[in-house]
Write a structure and sequence with these properties.
two-stranded antiparallel sheet, about 15% helix, about 35% strand, 19-stranded mixed β-sheet, alpha+beta, globular
């Protein structure tokens, strides 16, 4: 006997240059309110994965790493936090949901959705929920155990979504939301390993590819930075320059796996198949003029450096928010490849060029007992609800 579909309250939101399906924890089926296979299967079916066609025709996903995402929010039980935010990166064509990292872009939407969904006490919203101003939403990022502060604009007690803030990689302007990623470096088992290898620059040996300098950092998200020139690139590449070439993508995956091993994120190369979301691999270059994917001219004088990053095996169309945190943090530490590409020296902010345009990110870094620490990274994004109501999945999904 055919079963009816399940109707689950959900909201489809763009956050930064990503979009995902957002849920309140309390609205999920009972079996999905805890981590496990049922939750993973639900999110896969919502997105339309695993899809051998890599198209997501039968789901809410967009068949890219930027659009294959689900988020759960709940009221926080942690002191001085409003909400807990849990993020799942759904693999497009394999049976896998990666919970190993955060999505910086959707962190923007998490702050806005927390207010929309009634998860923030009215006393924390201007005018006790009826006024205008800025609501400071204190987010606990549950995947990585970090605090994010979102400064969300409010008009008449509601999240203001429209505005004139332009974000390269997003077609239309919207209202600006400022994000602060507090203490974004990886605390690690040893009490603080922003640079897991202990070095600002290492020589990374990649079987079948070669040896070249790399900066490996855990800030925002674990990231392996290499110089564009060392791997045969200019740093001005767009998505189609790399994503249409399987041999290039395979080479990047080898670099990513070597970095993951060196950073201690995995113990064997095979483990990388179940850790696709982290680490990221990015390549940097000193400023050059190029034409962004929108046709916009980016002059060398407009940026401090160029960065291209891969997410889930493909070159990202713009820049992941968490990787932007890693870029800003690494740029603030003299001697990293990111810092050197930006001209070296001490700096509190950088503007970098990515395939869709430019982005500015700031970071406050300092040395404590010989170890580099970053107190926070700051950047501006925007968020907008695209659709709200119920998402439907076949009932047998959870059987």
């Amino acid at each position: 006997m055919p079963q009816p579909q399940l109707r689950i309250p959900a909201t489809y939101i763009r956050g930064g240059t990503s979009k995902g399906v957002f849920f309140r924890l309390q609205d999920l089926p009972q079996s999905c309110q805890v981590p496990g296979r049922a939750r993973d299967q639900l999110f896969q079916r919502v997105i339309g994965s695993p899809d051998p066609y890599s198209a997501h025709i039968d789901g809410m996903g967009g068949a890219t790493s930027s659009t294959s995402k689900c988020v759960i929010l709940s009221k926080s039980t942690r002191p001085d936090h409003d909400v807990d935010y849990l993020y799942g990166q759904v693999s497009i064509n394999t049976d896998f949901v990666d919970w190993s990292g955060n999505c910086g872009n959707l962190s923007t939407a998490a702050g806005a959705f927390a207010i929309h969904a009634g998860l923030v006490d009215a006393s924390r919203i201007p005018g006790n929920g009826t006024g205008s101003g800025t609501c400071v939403v204190r987010i606990w990022q549950a995947n990585i155990g970090k605090t994010i502060i979102a400064h969300v604009p409010i008009t008449n007690g509601q999240v203001q979504e429209t505005g004139d803030f332009e974000l390269d990689g997003v077609t239309f302007p919207a209202a600006e939301i400022v994000l602060e990623f507090m203490d974004p470096s990886d605390d690690g088992d040893d009490g603080g390993a922003m640079f897991p290898t202990g070095n600002l620059v290492d020589t990374l040996d990649v079987p079948g590819v070669g040896s070249f300098p790399a900066t490996m950092i855990s800030a925002g998200i674990p990231t392996v930075f290499v110089n564009a020139a060392d791997i045969g690139y200019q740093g001005t590449e767009l998505r189609e320059d790399i994503n249409n070439d399987p041999a290039q993508l395979e080479r990047f995956e080898k670099i990513r796996v070597a970095g993951a091993l060196r950073m201690g994120l995995i113990q064997t190369p095979e483990e990388a198949l179940k850790r696709q979301h982290t680490p990221k691999i990015a390549f940097v270059s000193p400023p050059k003029s190029y034409t962004a994917s929108s046709g916009k001219a980016i002059a060398a004088g407009d940026v401090d450096l160029l960065v291209r990053a891969l997410s889930m095996g493909k070159l990202h169309h713009a820049m992941m928010g968490t990787c932007a945190v890693a870029i800003g943090t690494a740029a603030a530490v003299p001697g990293t490849l990111v810092n050197l590409a930006a001209g070296g020296g001490e700096r509190e902010a950088v503007r970098f060029g990515h395939p869709s345009g430019t982005l500015r990110v700031g970071a406050e870094a300092k040395q404590v007992n010989g170890q580099w620490q970053v107190t926070k990274a700051v950047m501006s994004r925007s968020a907008r609800i695209l659709m709200e109501g119920w998402v439907r999945v076949p009932a047998e999904t959870l059987e």
